[in-house]
Amino acid sequence: MTITQGFLDHRIFSIISDIAARKGVRAFVIGGYVRDCFLGCPSKDIDIVVEGSGIELAEAVGEAVRSNVSVFRNFGTAMLRYKGIEVEFVGARKESYRRDSRKPIVENGTLEDDQKRRDFTINAMAFSLQKEDFGALIDPFGGIRDLAAGIIRTPLDPDTTYSDDPLRMVRAIRFATRLSTPEHEFRIVPESLESIARNRERMTILSKERITEELNKMLVCSAPSKGFRLMDDTGLLEYVLPQLIRLKGTETVDGKGHKENFSHTLEVVDNVARLESMLIAKGELHDHYIEDNVETEKVRTAPYLWLRWAALLHDIGKPATKKYDPHAGWTFHGHETVGARMIPKIFQSMKMPLNEKMKYVQKLVGLHLRPIALVTEEVTDSAVRRLLFDAGNDIDDLMVLCKADITSKNPRKVEMLKHNFDIVRQKLVEVEAKDAIRNFRNPITGEYVMELFGLPPCSTIGILKEQVKNAILDGVIENSFEAADIFMKEKAAEMGLHPAETPDGSGAGQ
After folding, report:
1. Are 313 and 365 in contact (CB under 8 A)?
2. Cα-Cα-Cα-Cα dihedral of 317, 319, 325, 330, to 10°?
3. What is the pLDDT of residues 343-398, one digit of tens each?
4. Model's pTM, two decimal places?
5. In sequence order, which residues have a C-beta less than 8 Å from that of residue 484 and are 6 or more positions away?
6. How many helices (H) and strands (E) does the chain have?
7. CATH C-level class of 1-146
8. Minimal CA–CA distance to 160: which of 189, 192, 122, 125?
9. What integer pLDDT is reported at residue 153 of this predicted model?
10. Out of 1.10.357.10, 3.30.70.100, 1.10.110.30, 3.90.1170.50, which CATH number does the structure's domain 150-240 have?
């Protein structure tokens, strides 16, 4: 007998049970909530399946608990929130599919019909909310057994399940990735993996938005590499993110080979996940945002999806820049610049946001070699200032990415680079404390220059401001208005500019 005591203690379950009984319908908790209860991590998202109208039951429950109900009649679902949890109601249904679409033909059905249409056995388990057997586990496909064994398996023939809705192939890989822990690995059964490979061309009927949604969930797992390796093994990666496939393989010329960049990339993604988790636990990662025109920050409490994307794409420009030099060996000069230029097109093709999130990924890809370069060269204040200026508030995430990028089969080399990397990190702290470059704003404004010299908008203003900026970043002058003003006036004089006279005969800005 499976013990379920305590899983349905929340008051919402007894309320639903009472109202369902009064309305003469049967209701069940199904899917992820049931699965996660047995994994020891019950969620606040609850799915209720009703043998009858899910919308009618939701509206009755909403009235009883005085909660607004959102109804989605096109999908036959309704949702309400109650005391910190989100409950979604749907009528039990059975589905059939056309070959050219992943949108099902839906008919009313029983709980058994509904469980058969579920993607995996571990997601097909249900708890009864009937008075006579409240809390009983209904598990016709052995989901509890598969959960204990760490198995991802479809309730029906996998060819039917995956051909009907090919997104389930990506979901299988996502669940194997998300649920796996060092102590308890989840695996997709062989016949299901073979079916995914057979049905991979069905991916073409999926929208990019749905694929990307699954990919995003995979990326914020504790070890995302598992998912990408499974997608590569089954042939799905070609339909998900083909640019990654071009990173695969090595070449050898004159006995010299290069790093296998696909494996390296996946190692970096896992390294970022591990480092980020450690820093979040210590409260050492911050998110910067604007509130009422004031820049502030908050401690990050969850993985940052876009840092994971930056890790995944950091070397995406390498295939286009790979060259063999008889003296230097294999080179990838400029791959960070080429990679940064590729980001907008990749984001557009994946239907991802083309806003500041895309620009963040583009920035980190373009800058990811800079801290490493400081590790191998003399760490000058000028170089550190320019890195702080270019990275701005994203410097901490850039440093996470760059530390994760230190990989080698030579442990001594890795330790040496990490030691030098820590020196660079300390230098960043020291220079930032002294010069406040991270949020650099030029002390000299265009308005001030125009007023001082009586100039209209022109390129001269930009030239003077650029000279001031470079002087501060190079350590020629300190980061203050007074020092910048003196320097700017000297440079202006060299260009034949002098403060304009005001009506009282004195110079502007005097």
Report:
1. yes
2. 90
3. 999 999 999 999 999 999 999 999 999 887 776 656 777 888 888 888 888 999 99
4. 0.86
5. 442, 443, 444, 468, 471, 472, 477
6. 24, 17
7. alpha beta
8. 192
9. 97
10. 1.10.110.30
